[in-house]
């Protein structure tokens, strides 16, 4: 099974260190990042690399853990959330936001192990063997269905509860999440450069470094797109494919 990517959110360095220590004994979990406050957590979850699990402190000086979740926008997919706090008075609020567990500080090894076992059950068994990449997308419009060849798709853009597919000078709507389409498209051709954007690299004309690890992308039809820092690794991996 692929390691469970985990984000740690707590304003106390000692609390984050305790979480890292406990997770070090669970090789199927990997710490993908840490946040020191609620604002950093919102930014990481909105724009950073996708994670599977978040250990989220309830009480933080800027935003509470509950407020962090309420500020998230878009269709996700969002990770599982385990609230961590020194007080048990927030239990109801935590589960109203669909948290999967609630841990009290100081964290006990046995209780923490139970939490990880619960997360493993929720995430399920390893994914099946990947299906062949899609060659066509099925689009429904005004009562009929038609197909759009993926080789004609210039880029895909998340728009609330649907994805806008830009292909052949037209824009089509597909009722799917961007994450689902990413899993079915050829990774050698399609690269996710933003939480809400996947590009077909065959239509990429040039890219220029911008600020904070972001890029300005120019497509062959003159369209300008912007990547986000959280997906910079995807662009670097794409560029390395051309290194002699």
Structure description:
The strands form four sheets. The protein has a five-stranded parallel sheet with strand order 2-1-3-4-5. Strands 10-9-8-12-11 form a five-stranded antiparallel sheet. A three-stranded antiparallel sheet has the order 13-14-15, with no helix packed on it. The model has no long low-confidence stretch (mean pLDDT 88). The protein is of the alpha/beta class. The chain folds into two domains: 4-123, 3-Layer(aba) Sandwich (Rossmann fold); 136-240, OB fold (Dihydrolipoamide Acetyltransferase, E2P), CATH 2.40.50.1020. It starts with a strand and ends with a helix. Helix content is 27%, strand content 33%. The chain has seven helices and 15 strands.
Layout of secondary structure:
Elements: E1 4-9, H1 13-23, E2 29-35, H2 38-47, E3 53-57, H3 65-71, E4 80-85, H4 91-96, E5 101-104, H5 109-123, E6 136-141, E7 144-149, E8 153-159, E9 162-167, E10 170-174, H6 178-184, E11 190-194, E12 197-200, E13 204-209, E14 215-219, E15 224-226, H7 232-240
Parallel strand pairs: 1-2, 1-3, 3-4, 4-5
Antiparallel strand pairs: 6-7, 8-9, 8-12, 9-10, 11-12, 13-14, 14-15
Helix pairs in contact: 2-3
């Amino acid at each position: 099974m692929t390691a469970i990517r985990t984000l740690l959110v707590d304003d106390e360095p000692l609390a984050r260190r305790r979480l890292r220590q406990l997770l070090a004994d669970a090789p199927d979990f990997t710490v993908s990042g840490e946040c020191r406050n609620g604002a950093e957590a919102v930014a990481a979850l909105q724009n950073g690399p996708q994670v599977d699990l978040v250990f989220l402190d309830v009480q933080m000086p800027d935003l509470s853990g509950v407020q962090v979740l309420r500020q998230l926008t878009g269709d996700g997919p969002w990770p599982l959330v385990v609230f961590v706090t020194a007080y048990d008075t927030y239990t109801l609020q935590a589960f109203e936001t669909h948290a999967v567990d609630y841990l009290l500080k100081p964290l006990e090894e046995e209780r923490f192990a139970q939490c990880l076992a619960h997360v493993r059950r929720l995430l399920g068994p390893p994914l099946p063997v990947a299906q062949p990449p899609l060659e066509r997308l099925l689009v429904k419009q005004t009562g009929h269905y038609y197909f759009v060849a993926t080789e004609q798709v210039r880029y895909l853009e998340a728009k609330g509860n649907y994805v806008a597919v830009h292909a052949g000078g037209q824009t089509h709507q597909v009722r799917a999440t961007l994450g689902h389409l990413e899993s079915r498209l050829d990774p050698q051709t399609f690269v996710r450069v933003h939480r809400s954007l996947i590009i077909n690299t065959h239509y990429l004309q040039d890219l220029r470094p911008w600020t904070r690890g972001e890029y300005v992308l120019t497509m062959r039809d003159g369209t300008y797109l912007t990547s986000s820092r959280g997906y910079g690794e995807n662009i670097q991996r794409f560029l390395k494919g051309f290194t002699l």
